[in-house]
Amino acid sequence: MEKLLHYVWKHKIFPLRALLTPYSEEVEVLDVGLSNPNSGPDFFNAKIKIGNTLWAGNVELHMRSSDWFKHGHDGDSAYNNTILHVVNIIDCEVFAENGKKIPQLQLDIPARVERCYSELCTTEDYPRCHPIIRQLDQFTVHSWMSALLCERLESKAKLVMERVKKLNGDWENAFFITLARNFGFGLNGDTFEFWGSHLPFHALGKHRDNGFQIESLFMGTAGLLQMDAVPKGNREAATEDKYLEKLQKEYQYLAHKFSLPEPMSCERWQYLRLRPQNFPHLRIIQLAHLYHKGCLNLSRVLEAESIEQLQELLQTQVTEYWETHYLFGCPGPKNEKKLSKASRNLLIINTVIPVLYAYGMQHDNEALCNRAIQMLEELRPENNYIIRQWESCGLTVESAADSQALIQLKKEYCDKKECLRCRFGYEFLKNES
């Protein structure tokens, strides 16, 4: 309930009667201050008039006055500049570390606000605020969606920059690992990132012109050349598979040449409920083709100025063996096994655009950041259950910029029940209160 008290204070949902201290001094709130999400007082730089005195300083909020002592604020000098203690129940006087008595204000939470907030927190419907979505004006929707999009891009860019930092500033390899993660298309995302992080890039760079050697290093590092990686029903056939044998010998040679560590465990890879087109073998072969052809050079991605150019860069194909296989020792009908346009769009949304945005932020290149946003606005929206649920409420989703914003809303606000930080939640409470 303390979160709700914060909300009432922040939005000045005060009773119509005069606000008074326990000593009947009138309190006039000129500025509630800036919300502080970190340690220290809840609101900085507030301006409060108590009686005839104007105060400027910090405000702390609790459900009970005694929470001041429970949280140790009486011994913390960071709270010495507190000018007002706002509480729901006054049960004692409070003092700062320097001995100063802190004025207090009892602030009630309006019953209708409390009831509506409870509804938001407990309803099983999703989105919880759906009754008011169709009533929202376009400015409110557009401004909140724009803010959510920036949040999502910045959070994705932060992950990219963390990878760059771990790689001592190597943007090329960070880009590849980011792409590898998204080649997992969900289920194997973590495993693909682990695999990408353990690839011997020093060896790959020396053999980039040899597609077969790239394939052997990719598959060998993934642990997929081991017989344990072959389904039990296919192992007998796999022992006679000449292509698998050739890859194994090539990997053994390269592992010895570059003193490579042991491959990762093949048990990391998931196959349950995966369509064969998403099997890790096939995705790794597609990545090997892109790497061998030089399509994954970061410079080419940074130079691409259109979605069409990026689509072309992400065009994949597989070698002859994989046209008739999804796994070793298990032949099937011939198929080129190219990435669909929809899959390439997802890779652009989840890999290329975050890397562009991160690179622009890191190098103070606003043009790259703007290009990333523009590309999202040009791409068709993703089609998943999150987007369909919001559309059913009346929201119009016109581009990938909109769908990315709504995914951010779902994951960072709805799932975490952060309705009090959400502008749609604010409109819901305001509408009902």
Short account of what is shown:
The chain is of the alpha/beta class and 433 residues long. Helix content is 49%, strand content 9%.
Task: Describe how the helices and strands are arranged.
Blueprint: H1 2-10, E1 19-20, E2 26-31, E3 34-35, E4 43-50, E5 53-64, H2 67-70, E6 82-89, E7 104-106, H3 111-122, H4 130-133, H5 138-166, H6 171-183, H7 189-197, H8 201-206, H9 211-221, H10 235-238, H11 242-257, H12 280-292, H13 298-303, H14 307-313, H15 341-362, H16 366-378, H17 385-392, H18 400-414, H19 423-432
Parallel strand pairs: 5-6, 6-7
Antiparallel strand pairs: 1-2, 2-4, 3-4, 4-5
Helix pairs in contact: 3-19, 5-6, 5-15, 5-18, 6-7, 6-15, 9-11, 9-12, 15-16
Descriptive overview:
The chain is of the alpha/beta class and 433 residues long. The protein is elongated. Strands 1, 2, 3, 4, 5, 6 and 7 form a 7-stranded mixed β-sheet that branches. 35% of the residues are buried. It has helices at residues 2-10, 67-70, 111-122, 130-133, 138-166, 171-183, 189-197, 201-206, 211-221, 235-238, 242-257, 280-292, 298-303, 307-313, 341-362, 366-378, 385-392, 400-414, 423-432; strands at residues 19-20, 26-31, 34-35, 43-50, 53-64, 82-89, 104-106. The mean pLDDT is 93. The chain folds into 3 domains: 2-109, no CATH class; 119-166 and 347-433, no CATH class; 186-339, no CATH class. It is 49% helix and 9% strand. α5 (138-166) crosses α6 (171-183), α9 packs antiparallel against α12 and α15 (341-362) packs antiparallel against α16 (366-378). The chain is built from 19 helices and 7 strands.
